Amino acid sequence: MRFPTLPRIAYDYLVKHWIVCAFGLTVPAYWFAVLRLTGKSWGLLTTAGDMTSLAHCITWPLLVVSVGFALMKTAADKYNEEAKSSGQYVLEHLLQGVNAVTSAKLRRFGQYIEAGGHPNAHAFPQITQPRQQIETLLQNLQITFSNIFGISRDDIGLSIVYDLRNSGNWEWLISVNATDDLDLSALMANPETTVRQLVDNNLRTLFFPDKRLGAAQHRYFPGPKDRPYDGIGSVLCRDVSIVHGAASARAVLTVTTYGKQLCEADDADSIRIIETVILPAFQTRIRLEMSLLYIKEVLNPACARCPG
Hints:
Elements: H1 5-16, H2 18-38, H3 53-114, H4 120-127, H5 130-149, E1 156-163, E2 171-176, H6 184-189, H7 194-200, E3 205-208, H8 211-216, E4 235-239, E5 242-244, E6 247-257, H9 268-299, H10 301-304
Antiparallel strand pairs: 1-2, 1-6, 3-4, 4-6, 5-6
C-alpha cells in the first residue's frame, strides 16, 4: 500500500509547480530556436553554423535540466498510476464487503416475506436482528482487511465491547476470532489497555500500526494470543458509540492482527485509507445496528422477548 518516496515527492512537486515542469521540458526547444534565429549575430554560432564554446556552456545545462524534469515526470506519472490502481483495488474490496452485509440483510427480509410474516406485534423483533447483523459486519470487515493488506483472516481478530445503558457495565457484544474469553471487567479496569485509553481520553480512533510501540507507551496491554507472535501486529480501536438526544450507548470496536502488521507506523497512505476510507464505511452500519439494538433492548425490552 505504501508508495515510493521519491516518485511521490516528484508528483507533489509537479502538481504544485506544473508551469515550472512545462518550461523545464520545453526550454531546449526554445533555446535551439533562439540559436537558429540569432545565434550568429550573438556570437553563439560560427559562420559555418557550429556552436561556440559559450553556446555549449549554455546548451548542456539546459539539456540536463530538461532530462531531469522528464525523469521527474516519468516517476510522477508512475506514482499517479499506482495510486489510482491502489485506490481502485481498495474501493473494489470495500464495496464487496459492504455489499455482502446488505445482501445478507436483504435475504433475511426476503425469507420473512416469503414465510408470510408474523402478526404485527412480532414483526419488528423478527426482522430486526442487530446482534446477528453486527457479527456479519465484523466478518466482512475482517475479509476487507485481509484482502487489502494481505493478512490471513485467522490472524485478524475483531470485537466490540459495549455499555448499552451507560451504567459502567461493559459487556462483550460480538467477537470474531478474538479473545472474548478474557475477563472483560479486568480488561476495562486496566488503564493500559487500548480500549481504556480510547474511552478515558474520549478519542475517536486510537491506532498503533506496531502494537509493540503501544505496549512500550503503556497504551496497549499484550494478551495471551500475542505471545506466540512476540507481540508483532497492529491494534486499532474505534469509537462506535451512539448518541441520539439524551439517549446514548458506549461501544468500542477493536481490530487486532497477530504476526503481521496492517502497515508500518510511518505509512501515511495506509493509515489514511484505514482511518478515513475503510472504517467509516463499516462504522456507519455498525452504529445503525447499535441504534436498533438500543431500540429493541432498552426502549422496548418486551420486543427482545418476542417470538423470533
